[in-house]
Amino acid sequence: MGGTEASRHPAGRAPLFVPALAFAAGCGLGVSCAVPVLSACLCLAGALGLWFAARDRPRLSLVACGLAIFAAAALHARLPFAFIGADDLRSLPAAKFDVPTWEGRVADFPRFTPSPRDSAQGRVRFVLAVERWNPGGGWAPARGQVSATVDGTTDAWRIGQHVRLSGPLTEPRGPSGPGQFDARSFLADRRIYYELRASEPDTVRLDDPVRLSDRVGRWGEEVRRWAVVQLNKGVEGDPLAGPVAAGFILGRKDLVPPLVLAHFRATGTYHLFSVSGGNMAVLLSLALAGLRLGGAIRWRWGWLAAPVLFFYALTSGGQAGVTRALLSAVIVLGAWSLGRPVTALNLWSLTLLAVLACLPEAVRDMGFQFSFTVVLALIVLTPPLARLLGAPLRLDPFIPHRFATPRQKLQSHANLWASGLLAGCAAAWIGSTVLELIYFHQLCLVSPLANLVAVPTAWLIFMVGLFSLLGGLAGRTLPVLLNNANWVLVKLLVGMVTFLAQLPWASVYFGPPGFSGAEPRFVVMRAGYGTTVLLRHQGHAWLLNPSDERSFFYTVEPARKYLGISRLDGVVLTQWSSADAAAARFVPQVVPAGPFHAPPVNPHLASAWAAPFVDGTLPVVPWPAGATETPSPSLTVSVLSPPTTESAGSAADRGLVLLFDYHGARMLYAGEIGFPVEQRILENHPDLAAAVLVQGQHAKTRNFLPAWIGQVRPRELVLIGQRSSSELHPDLFGDLPAADRPRVWEMEETGAVVVTLHRDGTATVRRWDASD
Question: Residue 595 phi/psi, 5° resolution?
């Protein structure tokens, strides 16, 4: 390969690129598979021997070098799992699962969630770096990190505090349903393998000297709190201006309304709330501009910006993207000081090696993968795409730039800026699409267009917010003016994102292969204090119970997207209760939806969540007893209760009882009705036989009477609600032979279950599995 060709080839510009990929692949193998340490050592020795033997053959020696790096990375990633010390939490005896006492330090920013009833009290979560433990016979050394939760406490926890907690360790649970957060994998990627839950009376804060690193962390935490207050000055009454600005600057997504976050997800602009390279680039540019105004030379004094970048990374929470961006910026500043050339691909490779050398488990982290993949796509794809897009309006190469007219120069600069922005948006979309399909089953079609407007606007909001924070050091007037300017920008940005998100073709979702087959499948899952059911059959989809607001956005919506539901043919509110229907008003704003169906009597006319039904914004089709519907071909649903005039009893007793029938295969959804409703249905509908019964224990009266079970004769009982089978009627199965007793699925233990009605008249129930 000639010198010119080598300089154009990515590997020629970045000799660290291929080693970085080999190291990342080796780390991925080491953390994902139980590779024996001896095997990794033998592979490493063999690769080094091959490299030494082939030192006179360049191509073969490069291959051997890559194999050696791959084996070394796999060994590096596997060592923390292979050699576990006696004081490691994973090696401690079973007494750790009893109620021992633990002592250690708060290792990250505590996250306080106030109680809805008392904002001064609530729950706090933090990472506890354990130093010792007492199982009951005295203190002993212990080492490791625990995800700790303290209930009934105040917002008085700070990073670096030395604390003592009492409680058992528990292993984190995996996802309980489709699209749910996988706490087990998330924590394991951070070398956290246990959780600890305690209450305020079981905690003691010890007055130990605070280390310098903890003082720096507390300073960053206080600045973070101060910045949130500062960004809301002058716009305190607006629910968007301050929270969105804090989200862009500090990564505080928890302050932004869930509906707004859902629209940003649907348009592929959710990354704006993750502090990453874009934020660092803007901040570094402003810092260098300040140095230049002061007469400082960039390559000599640029390192002065490093403390500013470090402090910003500290106050923004140290996310994966900002860690990568900080390392990149520090490497660039160091290279400038040493007079060394910097190439983007080499910088990306060195940063990747540095992160994985410190924490090889990060290779499995979704944020890490998105951050490095998108940046790689920007580096590799943006230049050729920019040349391609800018070619039609590029200045004639035979015209020297200094001889061009002012109009031609303006056109050239505009063309260069526009083609670069378009190319960057397209490259980022290409780089993120594959990961979005894998993790979110989403193909965002409006993402390039949305990012074309959203990214520059977000950077402008970021800069205005930074100047507001700087102005807050001198007084109140300037921050108020700048925050009101941001109010205008935030309103324009959120309005544009909302408009694009509500386009029917904004995002398309793809379910697991074969999930939407020829037979109807019901995914039954807990959502807050209610139960949600998602039905899929031959391209049709229905939703039973949107649940409450929080559960809708963090349980129902992820499940809908994971299952590949891009449109709802109908929405059913089985109960007029906040636990099942409070989020119904959000459904048409996030997904195209068909008509709403509900019980005929709504007793919650004065409730705020029921306002859209009262004023007619959301028209509802009443479903009294005797009504029938065909959600999909060959699948019918019959309403067994309540009658048209039913107004007595609890919301559960006035709820819908639905009988689904598919070629004789039946599922009865009975909610949490009590025994009077069971008796009335038995009198009016003698043919209740159903292979699957979905029902929960009534909150006040008995249900699951022997006559009810004997008439339904279920083979599978999906127990919804918060009570276990031990609290059911004592004679529930007393009159049934052992062979006729149904199998009970307790959703509090099993998580989501999948009910399938088969064409041959049978039905099956199985626990939802992550492989789905």
Answer: -65, 155
Spatial contact of 528 and 549, defined as CB atoms under 8 Å apart:
no
Rounded CA-CA distance 116/122 in Å is 8
Q: What amino acid is encoded at 291 in this protein?
A: L
Looking at the predicted structure, is the pLDDT value of residue 772 above 70? Answer: no
Q: With 50 as the cut, is the pLDDT of residue 764 above it?
A: yes
Helix (H) or strand (E) holding 71: helix 58-82
Taking CB atoms within 8 Å and a gap of at least 24, the contacts of 330-339 are 330/306, 333/302, 333/303, 333/305, 333/306, 334/303, 336/298, 336/299, 336/302, 336/303, 337/299, 337/300, 337/302, 337/303, 339/299
For the segment 191-213, what is each residue's pLDDT rounded down to a tens digit? 899 999 998 887 887 776 677 77
At position 375, the amino acid (one-letter code) is V
Taking CA atoms, 560 is separated from 1, 81, 116, in Å, by 52, 36, 28
Cα angle 481, 484, 488; round to 5: 140
Which amino acid belongs to residue 237?
Answer: G
Q: Which one of 163-177, 406-420, 637-651 scores highest in mean pLDDT? A: 163-177
Q: What is the model's pLDDT at position 602?
A: 66
pTM for the full model?
Answer: 0.86
Q: 549: closest CA among 586, 597, 591?
A: 586
In sequence order, the 6+-apart residues with CB closer than 8 A to the CB of 430 are 377, 381
Backbone Cα Rg of the chain: 30
- Report the candidate in 654, 658, 662, 623 with the shortest Cα–Cα distance to residue 640: 658
What mean pLDDT is predicted for residues 518-535? 91
* pLDDT confidence tier of residue 728, bands split at 50, 70 and 90: low
Half-sphere exposure of 666 (CA within 13 A, CB side): 18
Dist CA 105 CA 131 (whole Å): 8
Q: Give the number of other Cβ atoms within 10 Å of residue 733's Cβ.
A: 20
Q: What is the DSSP-derived secondary structure letter of residue 770?
A: T
DSSP state of 593: B
pLDDT in tens, 173-186: 888 889 888 888 88
- 562: tokens are 């994971």
Contact 431, 374 (CB under 8 A): yes
